[in-house]
Specification:
By secondary structure, the protein is mainly α. The chain folds into two domains: about 240 residues, no CATH class; about 120 residues, no CATH class. About 65% of the residues lie in helices and about 5% in strands. The strands form two sheets. The protein has a three-stranded mixed beta sheet with strand order 3-5-4. The protein starts with a helix and ends in a 13-residue tail after the last helix.
Amino acid sequence: MVKAHSLILVLFLLLLVACTTAPYTGRSQLMFLSEGQEVGLGEEAYRHTLRDSVLTNHPEALRIVRKIGERIARAANKPDYKWEFRVIDDPEMANAFAVPGGKVAVYTGIFPIARDEAGLAVVLGHEVAHALLRHAGERISQSQLLGAGLAIAGASGINPQLLQVFGMGASVGLILPFSRSQESEADEVGLTLMAKAGYDPRVSLDLWERMERKERGAPPEFISTHPSHETRTQQLKSWIPEALKFYQPADRTLEILPSLQAMESPTARAERELLKRIQAVNKQAEDQRGERAVVEALGIGLRADPSVLYQERQQLRLGYGQYAALRALSSFGRTPLRRVVGDYQSGVGWSDLSQSNGTRLIELISFMGDLLRTAASIRGQMPSQSPSPRYRTR
């Protein structure tokens, strides 16, 4: 009980010093992170995401996204942010994101839904609003607070099974509604940003209608992180009049976004296929038996000692899929692995990585496919309770 009381005191003191005010809306926020810490985490996540994505070089897509983004950025009036706008070639992903610090990425899968620059301005305004409102830091802070609360309950002697139930209840009763409130807040501020950038906020109703048709079959609102379509529509209608006060119609024709067919290329298709296989290897290695199968299959494929590969992968702190692909390139091109890893971490794309190591991308894709098949075969031959592999650290 003494331990529990101490934890409660610490938690109370944290709450006293961790309250901030959200810009634009003036809402009180719980924030344990400084803005500098939040920006650092955001930029790290951004770099990691881009490394494992296919970036488009389509000139029209880049030009239009940057044009819209720069207008939104000027409206945001956050000069300490280092704004950057990239386009990720993924026709299956209808999304975009912005991280603290001003790094923004748009997936090509959103283009058919957005249709033109006004539609995309709705999306970018919404995502930039998340960054300006410091929603990422707020979520991290809330998770830290919930973790502290569970620790207090545990120190008080509560049954661990009840703690698990409490954690589940907290997710549905607190975290998800909290996330929905953030989404609504980003909608509201996003309308103001797009209006200040010269785009009609009334377009948002059509955009979210198209998005709803795309996502038909989404979970009920009470177990979703986003508000329902009906809730969002009602809220948008109530906020649009205020946003229109900032809207100055421009005498210009809205540009249509490029089609997915126009942006497609054989290289992008090949890189997306490689990324799928990399993620499949990561998934295969999620449990102990799968990890052992992947390491042994990689040893067979590279004619290398599995124990060396296992230790090397741990030291590099890479996913098994990324490690396997980079290790293969190092082997094929007789290039030091550290150099290949360094190029990958600096953002060099898989096509360029393959070419600079004397390998065609199709060969790397084939290698990863063979690795998956061999790993599946090895796993299928293992006993259900397979012992720890000999290369596992002690």
